[in-house]
Amino acid sequence: MHSSWDSLLEGLQEIKASQAHMEDAIEDMKGQLQSDYSYMTQCLQEERYRYERLEEQLNDLTELHQNEMTNLKQELASMEEKVAYQSYERARDIQEAVESCLTRITKLELQQQQQQVVQLEGVENANARALLGKLINVILALMAVLLVFVSTLANFITPLMKTRARVAATVLLTLLLFVLWKQWDFVEPWLLPS
């Protein structure tokens, strides 16, 4: 009976030692878990702080981009107004120049008619009078054709000068045609093969 009692005591001591060992292991695990929890909490706080900073930067950049787009739109509208105003001014100046030319031609016609009357009175030959009248009419007709040509050319050029892009395209096309004309001997075999 005594030996079973000793073995029972010995078993209890082993269980007690095992329990103490388990308690130490649990305390170690608690400490490790607490350390891991603190580390994870700190990492999460750092990530949250970094996320908030990135979100603020993104919002600032978005606002800056929107402001720049608004400024660019305003500048484009201002430039468009300037170009439209300048083209209107140019068209008005051309129209005034054409009207001035018409007025001068009318005055010249009146002066030539008066001179024709004066000269025709002095000219005794009827054939010379008719020839002089026809010559004056031809000159007046040529002046009228020249005026129509200038007016048509002005009306043709005005739409090509309304924007910078049209001015640039017109200049480039003119330069290209000029270069082709100057280099026609070189370009002709390519365009018109024999």
Automatic annotation (TrEMBL):
Is NAD one of the keywords UniProt gives this record?
no
Q: Give an example GO biological process.
A: amyloid precursor protein metabolic process
Q: Which residues cross the membrane?
A: 135-158, 165-184
Origin organism is Collichthys lucidus (Big head croaker)
Protein's UniProt name: Transmembrane and coiled-coil domains protein 2
Read off the Pfam families from this record: Tmemb_cc2
Compartments, record wording: Membrane
Could you confirm whether the keyword Endoplasmic reticulum appears in this record? no
PANTHER family xref list: CEREBRAL PROTEIN-11-RELATED (PTHR17613), TRANSMEMBRANE AND COILED-COIL DOMAINS PROTEIN 2 (PTHR17613:SF9)
Q: Record's family?
A: Belongs to the TEX28 family.
Keywords on record: Coiled coil, Membrane, Transmembrane, Transmembrane helix
- What is this organism's lineage? Eukaryota, Metazoa, Chordata, Craniata, Vertebrata
> Which superkingdom, per the lineage?
Eukaryota
